[in-house]
UniProtKB/TrEMBL annotation:
It comes from Acetobacter malorum DSM 14337. Residues 43-59 have a biased composition (Low complexity). Residues 113-210 form the TonB-dependent receptor plug domain. It is found in: Cell outer membrane. It holds the Pfam family Plug. It is a multi-pass membrane protein. Residues 43-73 are annotated as: Disordered. The keyword Zinc-finger does not apply. Belongs to the TonB-dependent receptor family. It comes from the Bacteria. The keyword Transmembrane helix does not apply. This is Outer membrane receptor.
Length: 764
């Protein structure tokens, strides 16, 4: 059962849960800011010479242009004032009160969305608050084109455009820690930046699905406290507290502390989850140009391990009760995590800056559970397997870059050069006892099998598996014309994976090694008008594979993507709109053997795969994010994805490649506040969402379901600036559907029935 993550495929479950907008009030701070602004304005008027008559028209035009710019750069409400105390205020979302961002940090250059020739979405802190999003799964379900595929123990797989998505943490790439891994509570993050399509320049070896950059919160130089509490159906409770402010009188040292916890049952029987997260951050402003940040995060969980429901032999729904639970009720997963992060940033002057970021994470996973392995009779009996897994994973990573402008031929150009390192060290071992070898595991009632938790298969084989990759990257943003930018760059990546049998103390075996693999990047952005741009880009990618064939580990996947489209910013950059088309071609992609053989891998018990030859993914995406009118926010996305096997030796050519990847995927969330921005008492708000998708197939192609749609609704009431309450109903029509499809025996999960959630948000 080595490297349990290998070969697990994923699916889509699209549920929205929401909550109302929380507002924060700081009267003294607002009054001081207003007084300072008024004094500065009077002083400027007193010292400014009168304009000449001939210059009046131009002056008025300049004032209007400056006013429009100020609307984007200056806060317009108490909520937005809070962001002024934060570092990187041009990228930070906490306190802005907006769904849109002024820049994203995953590009290192802090570019606007319409300056990036690829599809990028951001889940802001305000959207998290409005929809009461508390988990990474919930947040990524809001992103256009992203599929979230649960594994029944609080973990999930994530795909985009038919391929897996990889993580970054404050810009530091990681080859692990995303799919089939526990995630920290969403309360510690300022935003999630999601790039769809290959990210070979910064990520290194990775699938072409894209990457998610998790950006942590930092301390403010003004005191602030915030607390949220929510409770709902099936005894679901979540609470978090966030306290920040200066730690010294001169505000050179700021800090932040976040504590979050959740306790819940599930709509299906005998399942429970409890987890706690603690996060602490200290920012030391050594000088006006140099900042050092250190943080620590810890999380513990105790989660029931549920492997899902069976399907009929024909792949059809058995129409079981949605609260059905298959397997022993003692199945558990525990994965305590601890992470330490550090950042050192320095501004050199003339627009140049450098940043060094490092991270260290440790995860200890322990699983003991049962799952249905074969035979589902009309009497609902079957044969079971008891599985056990133990693993310790240690992640280390670092990223160093320098970026800034150069002036050449009377034009401004931006340069970036950097390097990063990523290490994933896994100690793991697993074993199982099947009905074939262990008496008492065959012909059992699938809903209440009598299986003793004392059946603990001995883990006789353990492995040490280090994966290391590092690389150097660079890019340039060349201004060909005032409205035309050329982006070009690339990366040289070095990758190595090896393993050692600790049980037998065998020497290390190098299973994969790739040196100096180039991944070029080329893009062109043309601003047709200042707020509308057309773009095209080419990106390259390679990905070492963890899958095994009968003859050994498969060779890396090589691929390319061409993408083009339009991006626009409207209503003074409060609304972002993107229309993109893409074409991805991959060679040597792994495909699961259709005979279901499981005699491959290090232990000879893993699922067998083969190289698929050529796989293609193409389609288009539409996204609208931001504020349509005062008080009216929207997040809308539609994705059409056609992924297909073009060449394969096992007769699958012409069929779709990716399981649980719908051709049509629609996501909508909208929120309206019935008051002007300056009104902060007795304000009502409403919200609504719809998720819809076309039919999909599961890990086993015979398992299928048709199209479905799920809607949610919310009503909120802001009693006063410091207190906001919401009530949300999810799955209004009580639609019956599967949020993920697997095999005939397991990994099939119903979506949540109609549920209710009440939440309270307070700010001080």
């Amino acid at each position: 059962m080595t490297r349990l993550k290998a070969g697990l495929l994923s699916c889509s479950g699209l549920m929205l849960c929401g909550a109302g907008m929380g507002f924060c009030s700081a009267p003294a701070f607002c009054a001081a800011a207003a007084e300072t602004t008024e004094k500065a304005t009077k002083s400027a008027k007193a010292t400014q010479p009168a304009a000449k008559p001939a210059q009046t028209a131009k002056s008025e035009q300049a004032k209007k242009a400056a006013q429009l710019s100020d609307e984007n750069d200056m806060p317009a409400s108490v909520e937005k004032l809070l962001v002024q105390g934060q570092r990187h205020k041009n990228a930070t979302t906490d306190g802005t009160g907006s769904y849109v961002v002024k820049a994203v940090s995953m590009t290192k250059m802090l570019l606007r969305l319409d300056e990036i020739p690829q599809s990028v979405s951001v889940v802001s802190r305000q959207q998290m608050q409005d929809q009461n999003l508390t988990t990474v799964d919930q947040a990524l379900k809001q992103v256009p084109g992203v599929n979230v595929n649960p594994y029944g123990d609080g973990t999930a797989g994530f795909t985009s455009r038919g391929y897996a998505v990889q993580p970054q943490y404050d810009g530091v790439p990681s080859s692990g820690g995303m799919s089939f891994s526990q995630q920290f509570d969403l309360a510690i993050y300022d935003r999630l930046e999601v790039l769809r399509g290959p990210d070979g320049m910064f990520q290194g070896s990775a699938p072409p699905g894209g990457s998610v950059n998790f950006v942590r919160k930092h301390g403010l130089d003004t005191y602030r406290a915030q607390g949220d509490f929510s409770g709902g159906s099936w005894d679901t409770f979540h609470a978090d507290a966030d306290v920040t402010g200066p730690l010294t009188g001169n505000k050179k040292v700021t800090g932040r502390f976040v504590l979050a916890g959740g306790d819940r049952n599930y709509f299906y029987k005998q399942a429970h989850d409890t987890r706690w997260t603690a996060y602490a951050d200290i920012d030391v402003h050594i000088t006006d140009k140099t900042t050092l940040s250190v943080s620590a995060t810890g999380q513990k969980n105790d989660t029931t391990r549920f492997m899902g429901l069976p399907m009929a032999a024909s792949g059809e729904d058995l129409h079981l009760a949605r609260n059905s639970f298959v397997g022993a009720n003692w199945g558990r997963t525990s994965s305590p995590m601890y992470e330490f992060d550090g950042e050192l940033e320095h501004e050199f002057g003339a627009g140049w800056r450098g940043k060094l970021t490092g991270r260290h994470r440790e995860t200890d996973s322990s699983m003991h559970y049962t799952y249905l392995n074969s035979v589902v009779t009309p009497q609902k009996t079957g044969n079971f397997v008891v599985a056990r897994y133990e693993g310790r994973e240690i992640y280390d990573g670092a990223d160093l870059y320098f970026t800034g402008p150069v002036h050449l031929l009377n034009r401004k150009h931006d340069l970036l050069i950097g390097a990063n390192y990523d290490s994933d060290l896994l100690y793991d071992g697993g074993s199982s006892a099947s009905w074939r070898t262990t008496p008492g595991l065959s012909n059992l009632d699938i809903f209440s099998p009598v299986i003793s938790d004392t059946i603990r298969p001995d883990i006789t084989t353990r492995y040490r598996e280090p994966t290391q990759q590092y690389g150097v990257y660079g890019s340039a943003r060349v201004q060909l014309m005032p409205s035309l930018d050329l982006l070009l760059g690339g990366r040289l990546s070095f990758y190595q994976y090896k393993y050692k049998n600790l049980s037998k103390n065998t020497p290390y075996v190098v299973s994969q090694k790739n040196g100096a693999v180039p991944t070029p990047y080329l893009g062109l952005v043309w601003h047709i008008v200042p707020d509308v741009a057309a773009y095209v880009s080419f990106t390259d990618t390679f990905q070492p594979q963890s899958a095994y064939s009968h003859t050994g580990r498969l060779k890396p996947v090589l691929g390319q993507q061409i993408e083009g489209g339009f991006k626009g910013s409207f209503f003074h950059r409060n609304l972002s709109v993107t229309l993109a088309g893409y074409h991805i071609l991959e060679r040597n992609k792994s495909m699961e053997d259709q005979d279901g053989s499981s005699t491959c891998g290090l232990s000879g018990t893993s699922t067998c795969y083969h190289a698929a030859g050529k796989v293609r993914s193409q389609g288009f995406e539409f996204e609208m994010l931001g504020r349509l009118l005062t008080g009216w926010d929207i997040s809308l996305g539609y994705t059409f994805n056609d992924n297909k096997i073009l060449k394969d030796s096992s007769g699958l050519a012409g069929l779709p490649y990716t399981a649980n990847s719908p051709r049509h995927l629609f996501k909508l969330w909208t929120h309206y506040r019935f008051a002007a921005p300056q009104v902060t008492r007795n304000v009502w708000s409403i919200g609504a969402g719809v998720d819809a998708q076309s039919g999909t197939f599961g890990t086993n192609r015979t398992v299928r379901q048709g199209a479905y749609a799920v809607a949610s609704a919310q009503v909120g009431y802001q009693w006063r600036p410091e207190l906001n309450m919401t009530f949300t109903v999810n799955n209004l029509s009580n639609t019956r559907y599967y949020q993920r499809l697997g095999t005939v025996y397991y990994y099939n999960y119903y979506g949540e029935p109609r549920s209710f959630m009440a939440s309270v948000q307070s700010n001080f």
